[in-house]
Amino acid sequence: MDSRKTLSEHAIYNYYGAKPEGEIQSREIKKSPSARVDKARQLYFETKSSASVEFPYWYTRRWEELEGEIPIVRRAEALKTGFEHISPAIFPGELLVMGKTHHLRGSYPMPWLSEAFFMAQEDEMYKDALEAGKVSADKVTTMGQGGGNVTQSVGNVISLAGKFGLRKEEMPILLHIANKWFNKSVDDVGHKYEQLVPGYKEKEEIMRAVICMFDSGYTLPQGREVMNYYYPLQYGIEGIKNICKEKLKQVAGYPDMDRLYFYKAVYIMLEGLQSWINNHAEETKLMASLEEDENNKSEYLEIAERLGWLANNPPRTFHDALQLVWIFHIAVLNEDAISGLSPGRLGQVLYPFWKRDMDKGLLTSERSLELLECMRMKFTELDCFASMGVVGGVLSGNTFNNLCIGGLTKDGESSANELEMLILESAMTCDTPQPTLSLLYDEKLPEEFLLKGVECTKIGTGYPAWVNNRVAIEFLLNNFNHEGLDLEEARAWSIGGCLETSAGSWMPLELEGVIHYIPGGSAPATSVGVHFISLPKVLEAVLFNGLDKRTGRRVYSSHGYKLDSYDEVWNAFKEYFSLTVEVLTLTNNIQHDVWGKISPSIINSMLKPDCLEKGKDISNKGSRYNRTFNVEICGGVNLVNSLASIKKNVFEEKNFSMATLKTVILENFGYISASETGSFSLTEQMKTTNYKTWLKIHKQCLDAPKYGNDNKYVDNIFKEWQDWFSKMCENYTSLYDEPLYSCQISVSTHGPMGAVTLATADGRLSGTTFADGSVSAYPGTDKNGPYALFSSATCYNHASSQNSQLNLKIHPSVIQGREGAFKFLEMIKSYLRRGGFHVQFNIVDSRMLKDAQINPDKHRGLMVRVAGFTQYWVELGKQIQDEVISRTEYAEF
Amino acid sequence: MNHIDCKYYLATDVFKGICKRTKDNINADEPACSDFEKATKCKHCIHFSTKDEFLGLCKDKATAYPDMQAVTCKDFSWN
Predict the structure, then answer these.
(1) Does the interface ipTM go beyond 0.95?
(2) Catalytic position from the list A94, A370, A500, A582
(3) Active-site residue among A244, A430, A498, A795?
(4) Which of A460, A475, A624, A804 meets the CB 3.0–4.6 Å disulfide criterion with A843?
(5) Pairwise CB contact (< 8 Å): A172 & B73
(6) Is residue A418 within 8 Å of residue A368, measured between CB atoms?
(7) CA distances to A176, A405, A416, A417, A662 from A452, in Å
(8) Which numeric CATH code is attached to B1-39?
(9) What are the structural domain ranges in chain B?
């Protein structure tokens, strides 16, 4: 252990082209929001993620009172009671108001979904509550790293899931109500029934080995989907209640009685939302009464009037419409644990209101920009309460509200509009993580619009991501045509969550006698089904004949292959992978069925075409399109690089035997484990004293062909994997009796999944993070520049999968100025024209990231692009930070 | 009493908040000023009875907790 040397002693990161030297290069352009929003952002920076028990308390109390009631009506009453009792809070200076709870970054546990993870800590949390002393806010603000995360219990605040603070006086009641859900939550009931699936035992071992990251039915049962705001914008809340009243009359007593209960549930829910909004209107009046400044007082009174109006009526103005959109967005988020609830093509949804106000002189561009900045703050304040594994290991604290711009209209023309230009501008002046932006690239989009997108990407926000409209449409037509989706409808698509292609519909919004077809989501949650299978870990199990060598547990039965040919390795991999998908599909189908019975979606169902028309909620296939379950994977590039290394080194050149490969994997090529060094990228690992024993073999593994260099040897393996994967998903059937499809995003799972995986045959070391995304090269291995990477990435048809994901890191100097912008846009176009689905960028000097890791307090506002999302650097875990630093930085192209 | 117990306390997070009257930033667990007025909480309600430090009963029936905000509770009545 005496000769601890890093693998790359001189490089703290990987780069292509001339290594940047001199001063760290900062962003090219820096814009600022309005004074009002700047103040709001400062408040946000100083605010900690906070959980409360108010909503779950009232939900549970009402639920218990209604034992014997029809389940969906019982749930509606419980939700209504929860909404009615949210303490209203109006923060000074807000133009858009209301939040999930009374805290600025508020959220709450939902024990009806899962109570297990905080019940497991019951004793510890009780102890924390009893031992709590006098709180000091200063103690927390000096934590530094972690931004808004409450990473440990302090004073009167208890840390939950390493992120959320809960007042100690609320802990006993939380545990009291959690106990009431024991054996009744979706988690517990689902667990009871999933054990009936043959192969359940293997499923448990797959989860223990972290071959699969987590179950979806009780963790994040909704999300990765696109909101549809049509009904509230067209009818207002009272108008939707009237629709329900009419429908109730039509269906009462007739067959298919579930419709009766659904309409009743929606009606009840809307009453709850009305109380919630009116409570905030009253609070705003109180704030006005305490205000001495006449302008502020008048602003409060305007807000109160607006809320009072929107509690019943459709919006009159753009400002009204934006406020109502926000209310329904958080209403959906409050009914379930949800990540990735995307506002979709909001600039096109709101355009009719905006254009009318602008034409009438009721609104200016400056005021529009300020409102959009306020909207950005509201989305950025969102938190999703979940366990540490989910909120940290998968989400990195993000909520993935993807706002899409561009794309095509119903009749195939450019959808880009002036409001979307302002949305881009607001994303630069108020550069916060939410909502993230995706530009739906199409050849028909105007150059001015694309250049505005480039201007935004260049400043280093990580957005907009650039997404291929035509590839998405091809995917949708392939997968939803049997449900009636045609080309016109396919154009209404948008991205749900970070990068999930989601089917949409055109809804006829009538405004002053003119019909405007606005796009909105019309499919339920996606990225439900099989959540993140670690491909390198499956290959590891193949090499060790079904054993997880890290834990010593048997995951799979022996595969029976001698592994004396490449084909045998590949066949064994396919068998283990198929078994994994099969058992996870069946168990997750049960979990989601239980979710639909115990905790059905009511508000989101009401919003989604055609639930309100059919009288069926999402879990009863009320949505227009229902083929949404998928199989998500992680670590694909490390799998392919490893297969290439095995093929070349073991079977073709016979540089070493399979037995030797297994030994060097167990020996971690003579390096200390990442968990011991605390560093999770390949560039900074430390050697043991016997590393020379394995040096040659390690070099042979590192020198084997690597994906991302336009190398046919490895790209053919990549293509074979992709083609097989997309096809095999169709062998499995979702709860909604539809075949699954493939989904290729890593989110943050490449960190924790890498952490439990031994060294791999591509030379990656044990415990280090996998390559991100799905078509990003492994850091430092793409040596031939971005265009070679593009060739590798497009060696298969991207429309065969729900998505693909490519991250690039570019040094700011490469794309400086107007000439740089044109060069940058041409590079993006060249990738998308080749059929690439998605590309996104970190425009950053890697040395700045390294500095931010050492001095987080100096970089509170620094954001980076991780996978399909942008996040504050200080709120990311170290596994992901190390991976982002080590990504290849392009200093020329 | 502390800021967190005051009617004019606007919590931004679990540690701190803003005074609705003065707009000053204040810490939840620091002593309130002379303008303190009791917040509408279960512990001040006529229907609430205490069981222990952290739990009690609402109308002798439902378990409740003393520090719960009751500003939206239609049955709240000052004790």
Answers:
(1) yes
(2) A500
(3) A498
(4) A460
(5) no
(6) no
(7) 53, 11, 11, 12, 51
(8) 2.20.70.100
(9) 1-39, 40-73
